[in-house]
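Data's thin. Show one?
=====
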Amino acid sequence: MPPVPVSILRALNLTDASKASLSTSGLGSGFTSTGAIRALVPSPDGEGEEERQYFVKTSSDGKAAEEMFRGEYESLNAIAGSVPGFCPRALAWGPLEETKSRSYFLATEYLDLGVGGRTGSSLAQRLGKLHSTPAPPDPETGKRRFGFPVPTFCGDTKQPNRFHDSWADFYANERLMVILEESERRNGKDGGLREMVEITAQKVVPALLAHGHLGYDRNGNGQGITPVVVHGDLWSGNADRGKIVSSGRKEDEEAGEVVYDPSACYGHSEFELGIMKMFGGFGSTFFTAYHRIVPKTEPVEEYEDRVRLYELSGAMSIMQKLIKKYGS
């Protein structure tokens, strides 16, 4: 087994390298190299030692790796802070000082997938709790706003996540237009595509999501919407049954439905459902149980149109990758 890099040992406060091991067997990702660390640490009572397990990602992709891991670090902790055990907590990220290239790492709690049988909280229960918990206020203004403290990545597309007071402004500018501009940067401009996206951003988004409209019924009764933490890339490949193990945090180790690889933001709860419905894998039983916890936003009669609109950002991300691969 390769040794655990000193940078990671130091970040995890593992002081005895001889009691830590790194395994990369059977682990891998399209964007990063991954591994599992096992270490012995002093037990809380000081009478002996107990095992800790960690999951580690590394990448030599320079600035992109730095931003990607910072975004995932903040995304994981935004989710875990609201619903402990729903995803691994991120414990550390930073540069791998041992490498000559600009490499970075991300270390998290270890998530053991496929365990727990049918016990524990369901995906509907945990996601419903996440989407019922208001996002933290913006420290600069003291208001709850739509955005996220750092950029995140959906695949290899950077999402700046600049803060907006209006959800419609955020979705139009930080999702639809960002993806369009990235596609144009990579693949060249397409006048027809730009026209359709601009009409959607300038006409359809305000019609469905405008402040003063979303969150109010046809009689004008309502309170608008409150930003909540959304996973941001929740398809069936980023959810499973599982359990965090050997973390030292018993509150994190309840078996149940879990999620991972988030690309979070503070947004409208139904934004999550666009990706979930576009890729499938979540049946009517889930949505029925979820909406018992998080009712459909008013105007309810526009719910299906809103979800279709939210599907568009995911479809555009896929489209620009296909154009890059086959368009030339």
